[in-house]
Give the backbone structure.
Amino acid sequence: MDQVEILPYSPAYNSAFKSINQAWVESLFSLEPFDIAQFEQPEETIVKTGGTIIFAKLGEEIVGTVGLYKSGEHTFEMIKMGVDPKAQGKGIGMLLGQSIIAKASEMGGKKLTLYSNSKLKAALHIYEKLGFKSVTPESGKYCRCDVKMEIDL
């Protein structure tokens, strides 16, 4: 079996960021302007604003991705974690989560936040295993999110 390799951001993988994540976001929610901007211009909206994206490669194919959005001087948000449906069940989500937590810390982060929806129960279980704790979400942060989780780095 091929090993999963975590790759740093490269513009060459931007199409994988969009293709892996956009389908599942659209299946659950209406795309918001910030989704469209991140899918169409991840370099401008995520990387050049102080964040990054990492990718998981299995064999020769990119099968997972997660973004790190800089939301404050020492705070980041984990955004758009996705794993290709044909690569589910291989621990890729956990590996991406561990890698993005380490990356946030390496980039000077003190707190990592994520916003989710209770519809995504499988993902919430992964986040809890990674050490995220549920906190009360602010009303109106993202209209479609009813879950906020944080981890101190």
Notes: DSSP finds five helices and seven strands in the chain. The longest strand covers residues 61-70. The radius of gyration is 14 Å. The helical segments are 14-28, 33-40, 42-47, 92-106, 121-130.
